[in-house]
Write a structure and sequence with these properties.
The chain is of the alpha/beta class and about 300 residues long. The protein is elongated and about 75 Å long. The strands form three sheets. The protein has a five-stranded mixed beta sheet. The protein has three domains: about 80 residues, Orthogonal Bundle (Arc Repressor Mutant, subunit A), CATH 1.10.10.10; about 100 residues, 3-Layer(aba) Sandwich (D-Maltodextrin-Binding Protein, domain 2), CATH 3.40.190.10; about 90 residues, Periplasmic binding protein-like II (D-Maltodextrin-Binding Protein, domain 2). It has nine helices and twelve strands. Helices cover about 40% and strands about 20% of the residues. Helix 5 links the parallel strand 3 and strand 4.
Amino acid sequence: MVKLDGISSFVAIAEAGSISAAARRLHLSKSVVSERLAELEQHLGAPLFHRTTRKLSLTEDGSAFLERANRIVWEVQDAVAEVAERRGSLSGPMRLSAPVTFGRMHLGPALYPFLARHPGISLTLELDDRRIDAAAEGYDAVIRHGTVEDSRLVALPLAPSRRLLVAAPDYLARHGRPDSLAALRQHRAIYYTNRNVADWRFADVRQDVFVRPPAALRVNNGDMMRDAALAGLGLALLPSFIVGEELRAGKLVRLDIGHEAAQELIYVAHPEGRRASHKLRTLVSTLREHFGTPPYWDVV
């Protein structure tokens, strides 16, 4: 008989790309995961992976089996969640990814009381500013800031997000205050490297005619962008959830160039084809209520 733990291990290996990575994800030893895979292949009578010294890749049989295996794993997890829901409780593992700055500043304070109310949930939260492939890397969902670009994800909005063009008073005293798109060319900018070249997007402004300021700094973290702006290195286009306190304290100044930055979202996204679990739906409702409409940080 094919065992469920063998199927779960196979799915984890396929998503993680190696037995070692799957073992870390499952909190098991590499030898246990390897034995489960070998037993599954023996029962099926076919190898599921091509093995080389560098990587594993699915065989034709493995690719065909993966779709059904994924469905089996998720059906079992849904069944467990449904039983817990009938008992009036939420339980089981949940794995999320979120941006570093938003996670530290706003997600954590919303998550802690949620987890305290639902002690049966075991949450793994990984903060990372890079774009995560939720399905391939085995996440239940990812929390993102920006526009929904991945068609393989189902997005659940949490809150609108405004990005504001800001600079330190000291920088403006030295270099002047820009009041138009054209005036931006005379300044230097702090750019976020995890976005493409079109990061600075303004409503009703064609990207092919907008000339961006030269870079003073490119960095992949919002905290450092804010700190660089506070240090007077240049202009920064940052979400209000990062710079709200500095704007209220007068440490940064919002600039009006006659155009608003393009609207963005903070959202939860889960892989297409997977039904959002009751845990995830409850978490989304909790986050929406905590952030508010408009979100509490957007009072500048």
